[in-house]
Amino acid sequence: MDTRYDYQDTDQDLALSVDDVVDDIDLGEPDEPLDEAAYRLWRKAVTFGTWNPADIDLSRDREQFLSLERPLQVYLEHFCGAFYNAEENVAKVFCPWVMSVSTTWQQAYLSTQLMEEFKHTDFFARYFKEVLGIEKPTRALSNPVHESLVDRAETLLTSYRSGSDDRTLHLVEAFTHYQGIIEGVQANAGYQIFLAVFASKGMLPGLAEGFRSIQRDEGRHVGFGMQLLRHYAHQNPLYAERIRAVYNEYLPLIQVRYGVPLTVNGEVFDPPAEERGRERLMKLYERRLKDIFS
Ligand SMILES: [Fe+2]
Ligand SMILES: [Fe+2]
């Protein structure tokens, strides 16, 4: 089966979409104290984070999905399934992140993130049911970066309860893992892929609207994450070293998820040529390290 797509991607397109997404990150000035950043983002979240997943019209997406060629249908289900699983998994284990930061406004801000991750889950639950016509993703690709998040949450909770000296170190590791890598690199690469494969061609307007709202929320999530990591990296070289070590550890695990053919009932489908996942991922990876260390 021919799974190639008639689309010419260019370096300029790649660079533009990277900047479009990166500029959405709500990162404060380098001298902004962490608690002021948390209060600023808390205020923003309660004012602007009020979109409702139930209000998005998905009827045109359903029509378009039914008329897509089979390889793109398979790709869309796989792509949305990765987001659905990721949003739901994190929403269910995020409480220790909220509890482990040290001040009222940092906790208040992170409580908005907890609710927003459930809101993103709600959007994808609707998308599966109403557009793809199934309750849940049927093929869950293994994602070791996500699967190890449960252990990260356990460690965070244990060190929070014990009040041990390495509490801050575990907090830094947990923020690097979740806000730094999963949200700041993996999810951001996903938004760009959606733009390149579907939205830039005017396809799937409901999913595009959902992603625009999700991305605005994620701009705050990644922005606060980067600000917290920057704060601790400058406070202690041990924390800076751990942040770099966690980024290095996960890089090979996030790279392997792109450019791989999908096999469904013995049929093999190549990903669309414009995915260019590894390139997008590497640009974001470098950008995040710059956000923290420059
Ligand atoms: Fe999310
Ligand atoms: Fe998020």
From TrEMBL:
<dbReference type="InterPro" id="IPR012348">
    <property type="entry name" value="RNR-like"/>
</dbReference>
<dbReference type="InterPro" id="IPR000358">
    <property type="entry name" value="RNR_small_fam"/>
</dbReference>
<dbReference type="InterPro" id="IPR009078">
    <property type="entry name" value="Ferritin-like_SF"/>
</dbReference>
<dbReference type="Pfam" id="PF00268">
    <property type="entry name" value="Ribonuc_red_sm"/>
</dbReference>
<protein>
    <submittedName>
        <fullName>R2-like ligand-binding oxidase</fullName>
    </submittedName>
</protein>
